[in-house]
Design goal:
about 150 residues, 5-stranded antiparallel beta sheet, 2 helices
Amino acid sequence: MFDVSKMLSIGQNAMKSRVVQRSDTAAAYSGSLQQFLATPILIDMGVRASMDVIDQCLPPDMMSVGRYINFEHTVATSIGMTVTVKATIISMTEKEVEFRLEAWDEQGDIAHGIHRRCIVHRDDMEKRVSERRSKAEQRAEKRAGERVQ
């Protein structure tokens, strides 16, 4: 059995940085927010940084999947500023890794949170997703047939 805690250590981390562009803003959610970094962008950066820590240690038949996120975006960041998100391992078991997420820009802290990722067998995950998709398709076909009658 694969034990991720033998490959990683508490305190291990990775960071993602980017200059905020118009495409990173919350304009898609509200026209009044077109100058400000969208929270989903920060969350995406944290997830990607977490994956950078874990995925390099996994054999090809394993993958990490997000299981939980709790994130608080406390201060706005505007277009042109550089934002950085750091994901640091704070705890782990043989199949789950928990990260502290911290985000900042040139002016200081802007967000923080917790993210957990589970380690799964790639084939098992793909099989479960395929089974769920087949069941959903069967339900949709059944509903479509009921509407025709």
